[in-house]
Amino acid sequence: MSTKLSNLLFEGYAKILETGEFSDTEILVGEEPNTRIFRLHSFVLKVHSPYFRSAFLNYWIRIENNIIRFQKPNISGEVFEILIKYMYSGKLELANNDIKTNIAILIAADELCLDELCSYIENFLLIDKESIKSNFNFILYITNKFEQFIKLSQFCKESFQENPSLVLRADDFVTIEQEYFIEYLTKNNDSLKQIEVWDKLMEWAIAKSNNELPSDITMWTIDNITTFDTLIQPFISLINFQKISHY
């Protein structure tokens, strides 16, 4: 009986979300030129989100014609819509999203103080550990920035300690910045195969060259070689070329 009543309540919320009936709140989300306005209900928001409970204090908001007006530029319209539908319907679909979208949902849910949802999303992400490893550098960056994602953070730390080469072998390896790459090699070079480091450094330099370097090195000109030398110069002292010669 209680489940049926709960479902009926959520159905009612979902209906007024769709129609906009009784809305007393307008929230502008995203940044130009990709902003969206959501017409919502302050009661629903305050019930489900401690963030909105605090945010809707008079000194946080603007009220015009009895409508609460609020801005949230740091959450995209796509992500905000997913979270609003969750608050109004209790439903959340993550399976069809890519991992970066689900991470964006996790970060936004954390900001809106949706703690149970955050735990659920972390558990969902950890089901597909191979996807995390494929995007390891992105996930590592996120867990370093948002230490509150304890489950993800613990998985990344344990995986990295077990195999530091995950950074090099991740699909998103070429996206890492020079400063982080240098720091990574400085701390972990002794545990890495130098031939792999060199191959990955070449791959990274080609990706960072803004299409100046052909992927086929046999096609390189003198100018290409000069560009490559400039890109890898900060790394030269970190590579043990004697070990490479043993392969």
From TrEMBL:
Q: Which SMART domains match?
A: BTB (SM00225)
InterPro entries, per database record:
BTB/POZ_dom (IPR000210)
The lineage's top-level taxon is: Eukaryota
Segments forming domain BTB? 23-96
Quote the protein name from its UniProt record: BTB domain-containing protein
| UniProt organism field | Rhizophagus irregularis
Organism lineage string: Eukaryota, Fungi, Fungi incertae sedis, Mucoromycota, Glomeromycotina
